[in-house]
Amino acid sequence: MKNKLPVLILFSVFLFSPMAALAGGLPDYSGNSNLISSMLEQNISIETIYLILAIPVIATIIAFARQIVGFTALGVYIPVLVAAAFMIIGVEYGAALFVFVGIIGSIGRLIARKIRLAYLPRMAIVVSLVSFAIFGFYYFSARFDYFFAGSLDVFPILVMGLLTEKFISVQVEQGNKRALALFLETLFLAIVCIFLVNWGVVRNFILNYPYSVLGILVINFIIGKWTGLRLFEFYRFRKVIKHVELAEKK
Amino acid sequence: MLNWLKKSKQILGMNARNLSFVRPSNSKRKVALVDNKLRTKKVLEKHGLPVSKLITVMATRKELADFNWTSLPSSFVLKPNHGLGGEGIVVTFGKKKNNRWVLPNDKEASLADIMYHAANILDGDYSKSDAPDMALFEERIKIHPAFKLYSYKGIPDIRVIVYNRVPVMAMLRLPTKYSRGKANLHQGGICVGIDVSSGITTHAIQRNQLIEHLPDIKLKLRGLKIPNWNEILELAVKATIACGLNYVGVDIAIDRDKGPLILELNAHPGLSIQIANLAPLKDRLLRVQGLTIRTAKKGIKVAKDLFGGEIEEEVEGLTGKKILGVVNDIKIKNKTGEWIDVQAKLDTGAGITAIDEEFARQLGFAEAIDYYLGFNIKRVLTKEEVDDLSQRKVWQELEKHKDIVAVAKIYSSHGISYRMEIPLQIELASTEISLNATVIVREHLKYPIIIGRRDLKKFLIDPTK
Q: How far apart are CA B406 and CA B395, in angstroms?
């Protein structure tokens, strides 16, 4: 019991303080923070500032989802990068690109497996295929004006390449089913992160009180000490729990 | 709900496994040792522990090219040195006339296929973060007859979780059609919990679902006795001592000819073993934590005392009958109403309970015994003599004494005896029983009373107990 109380307090602070900020009627960045204001004066875009500040928050959500809820996803870093990429290109196109890259990567792997090649060149072929596919994706969407024609950001493309490599190495190491599950979990977590981080309340709070992001270190410290069952484990072990016999008090 | 939460605290989750057990128990160096199958094998061999035989090791492409491939036997196992969860393992079952090896699922592999797979292993296809790896060729283990029906083209293995030198939980892993001859759990293999004290299987799971029978052939998975059980437990504990780990899963297979062999050690053993045993692991770990255990024997004894008996409880639950050993401490009420402690033998070969004459005297039946002796009946009689006694209705005379409730004719290999029966009150396994016992001279025997079938209807007898 004694290590649960601080967790509860911290989480309620974490969750309710943005709401309190909202209740106080906080508009979009209100010039509350000297730090942010001075950065804006130097022509750094507010989107860039927020992206950087949001990454620790995203990482913490992922850590929470893994340690306390029980998601596995493809590590911590990949979902964080994917979420950041989604922030840049928007969640709808991001998700579409994500699924597209996954499909192309898997097809590429199947083809490359047929021709006997050493591991690294084979992987290079797969990553190239993904690159070509993204190229086509951008070309057609620009051509038909589906979305931001022209703004071809390098970062999301690199992230998708990284994702493909990780996805395929998990396919080889842990089997296709498991890889697909991890892939979808990653997508799901990235979307959840985006919705949280793009939520006006959270965004305003972080921009107006940028130092609050430091509080995340404390939260992660607590998450890292948590030894209780993960949420999913309650389900996984439900039959065992039913069979547990409690020692009778004498 | 509160009770449910309390119960869930005894389950070992991933967080607790890593933070509370794996990390404090296993040093990084030792984890690296068991992650390396080749080094582990060498350490185990140095400690005189049995391992599967290595055919060859390849670390570089040059070694792969230089290897005399024709010397490869018709049946072998090819595995990556740093493999994870059984991926990258190829098992061959024999060689066909066309020089191709037989794989599970009726597939075949040519020499080129095998070499390509070995090359992929060297490239790090199956190792953590794609680091270059070594390829190990091992002799294939021959399946033990006890498992033949239970496994589909592969060798079952036994996972024993050892903590603080105590084998706390165990399971049997059976390869199935879906696991492609491998016994790893997440690949569709079947996992059967094992009662630590008896080595008898309890519950079974496949893909985290409880099952009763082997799919397809409907063979019951419960109640299978694992051969060489004590040896397996001992090997598991000794392997952890040899490798210097304090919380580890030891995988052991049983070879038809060589007996139990250690396959590998796993510093992060999975948690599904709890489902296969329907028992919480954390509770067991906490009970073993902090004990000083020096030898494997002691660790096994602790495990058997603490965690055994699940099968027994289940049988008792099913039949409503208590399981007893052959010799039991019982209490007998003497004629003045005091309870006397004595050792009794439960004898399912005898129909009626028998008590020693001298002991019956001590209990207060001296008068009845003297009355019986007054009839001068021989201890051993022939058939004709007994018929004569029956015809003369001697039993009616005998039963006139208030302590003689019946007369029994007892047939044994020595001949026939004509015995008096006296009423007794005994307490066996905390149940009070009223019974009639025949009185006979048992002075040369170890136990003054044997309890026969007629009075054992409420019990099951386990001669190994």
A: 8
